[in-house]
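[User] Once you have settled down, look closely at the record that follows, and write a paragraph about the fold.
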Amino acid sequence: MWFLGLGLLGVALKVLEVGVVATWSWWVILTPFALAVAWWAWADASGYTKRKVIERENARRQERIDRQRSRLGTLRRK
């Protein structure tokens, strides 16, 4: 996501001809988009994205279970 934001900022600065960015080559400006595509391809192929989704779901489930137990008064204090 950072690469995408950086790429959009670079394009905006290039189009608006702000500062030194106006003199940079378009290859330099568009490089963050290529890096974002490479990151997403790696994240999907390696299972990184799926692991993060599962971790979030497990955390939400555990939070819900803890909240219900505390309402029932059965949550053990650590």
In short: The chain has a mean pLDDT of 90. Helices lie at 2-15, 26-46, 48-72. Residues 48-72 form the longest helix (25 residues).
